């Protein structure tokens, strides 16, 4: 069974999730934007062994702690899609612009593409490329537990911003409709900020994509 725990980090209250395989206790951090000591303490409390870092996209509040965490644990960084290379290249500027501690630079060990999969222990998650908020945004779908980790594509009652460099509103809407909705109305999604919701609820009531 795949388990997860979500911990809001950084002044932006970004949802970093620790996902792990019950059988092996191997774990991955999804979007460790910062507060590394707190994340490591939570992993110890859960009794899991972090073996990977997975990134949905490379905005500072999602990726700002990835380089330091990878260095400290000696683990790979997986994702996002190479469309976010310019955001990774600009992490130092992002840190300064938003008042974050300087980010440790990194190069992903593995880029992700639509249709790829990632594995932690005995559990596999499917990868979908979902541009719009950023060009290289990806999401992680765990159909075995009806969960999706969607970064900043979709929120409870809202959608991701598209006014940053590389953002595209129509691409974002297309990503939601063509990539997320087919995962099923019953799927609970963990957004990059705020509470969980379901795709069905958002299809019905989200003012930006309701009725699509």
From TrEMBL:
Keywords: Hydrolase, Metal-binding, Zinc. GO terms for molecular function: hydrolase activity; metal ion binding. InterPro entries: MBL_Glyoxalase_II (IPR051453), Metallo-B-lactamas (IPR001279), RibonucZ/Hydroxyglut_hydro (IPR036866). SMART domains: Lactamase_B. Residues 192-212 are annotated as: Disordered. Residues 13-193 form the Metallo-beta-lactamase domain. Its cofactor is Zn(2+). Gene3D superfamilies: Ribonuclease Z/Hydroxyacylglutathione hydrolase-like. This is Glyoxylase-like metal-dependent hydrolase (Beta-lactamase superfamily II). It comes from Extensimonas vulgaris.
């Amino acid at each position: 069974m795949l388990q997860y725990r979500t911990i809001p980090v950084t002044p932006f209250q970004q949802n970093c999730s620790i996902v792990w395989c019950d059988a092996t206790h191997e774990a991955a951090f999804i979007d460790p934007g910062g507060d590394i000591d707190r994340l490591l303490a939570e992993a110890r409390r859960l009794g899991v062994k972090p073996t990977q870092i997975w990134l949905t996209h490379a905005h500072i509040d999602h990726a700002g702690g990835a380089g330091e965490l990878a260095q400290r644990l000696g683990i790979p960084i997986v994702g996002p899609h190479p469309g976010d290379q310019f955001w990774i290249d600009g992490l130092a500027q992002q840190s300064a612009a938003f008042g974050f501690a300087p980010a440790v630079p990194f190069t992903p060990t593995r880029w992700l593409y639509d249709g790829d999969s990632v594995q932690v222990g005995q559990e596999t998650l499917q990868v979908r490329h979902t541009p719009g908020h950023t060009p290289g945004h990806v999401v992680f779908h765990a159909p075995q537990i009806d969960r999706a980790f969607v970064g900043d594509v979709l929120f409870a009652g809202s959608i991701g911003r598209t006014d940053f460099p590389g953002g595209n509103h129509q691409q974002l809407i297309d990503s939601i409709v063509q990539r997320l909705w087919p995962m099923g109305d019953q799927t609970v999604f963990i957004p990059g900020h705020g509470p969980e919701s379901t795709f069905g609820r958002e299809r019905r009531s989200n003012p930006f994509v309701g009725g699509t």
